[in-house]
């Protein structure tokens, strides 16, 4: 069993196309969004068979946030905002091609000292929600480059 896993890893590493994921642009007000988005995009590229390496001959990929925002959707009886709709839309430029992904997810702020945790969980939930579509588009782009 281990032999098959090691063999698959060696074959994958020897035939993987090298890609350099450059900075995430467009979201300076929330470093967690930048971190989480980069982590998700890196995971999608790795799962698609790319090798992450910033060598001179590597493909260059740039992630740019087109829209990131929160819209209040519910208020408490004291007119305080208790729920938001978080929206994220971004593009990835690879070799002159552009992939666009995004979505929205609602989240609530409970009473008490939870701080930024509900918002971070909403960002993670949103990126998990769009991950499979992103992965499918990256694989489609990679297969189109092979043809």
Question: What are the main properties of this structure?
Answer:
five-stranded mixed sheet, Double Stranded RNA Binding Domain, 147 residues, 5 strands, elongated
Radius of gyration: 19 Å
Kindly state the number of beta strands: 5
* Shape type: elongated
Q: What's the order of the H and E elements? A: HEHEEEEH
CATH topology: Double Stranded RNA Binding Domain
Termini separation? 33 Å
Structural notes for this entry:
- Helices cover 41% and strands 37% of the residues.
- It is of the alpha/beta class and 147 residues long.
- It has a single domain, classed as Double Stranded RNA Binding Domain (2-Layer Sandwich), CATH 3.30.160.
- The chain has a five-stranded mixed β-sheet, covered by helices on one side.
- Helix 2 runs parallel beside helix 3 (117-146).
- The mean pLDDT is 86.
Short description:
This protein has 147 residues and is of the alpha/beta class.
